[in-house]
User: Fold this.
Amino acid sequence: MTPAPIPADEAERLQALQQLLLLDTPPDERYDRVVRFAAEQLDMPVALVSLVDGRRQWFKSRLGLDATETSRDISFCGHAIVSSELFVVEDASLDPRFADNPLVTGDLHLRFYAGAPINAPSGHRIGTLCVIDKVPRKLGAVERAVLEALRGLVNEALAGRDDAEAAP
Assistant:
């Protein structure tokens, strides 16, 4: 297993995350709606808004998963925040970075992961909107576009804009 890498801007990224005052807060319907829609539209059993702090990934919103957090070193989202691009693992059991990861070998049996990095208003990548399945999958162009569009909604919520403020 390859532990999640530490981004070059880690200190600033963590500061931007802390300034949002979101960690360990109650559920929020803005994020829950996006997670439900992602799961429905992409036909995924698990969807999350995950925030990656210094030691863990904590789920601001979750569907299909009982856990509220996991260790950062085993997180797929920790890998996803290193780049601004969509991070996709089609079959984690065949990927040397993840094949022996406890999220793959344990009860979750994670096989597919797609994570769209989300940004604090400062632009720092602080987590992901991700979808997970227990079977290998591929994302087509339309599915990628849906995940990208939903990432935009999460970024708007993180910036403190609601639907009325975002409308032209």
Remarks:
- The first helix runs from residue 10 to 19.
- Residues 10-160 form a domain with the Beta-Lactamase fold (CATH 3.30.450.40).
- The longest strand covers residues 125-133.
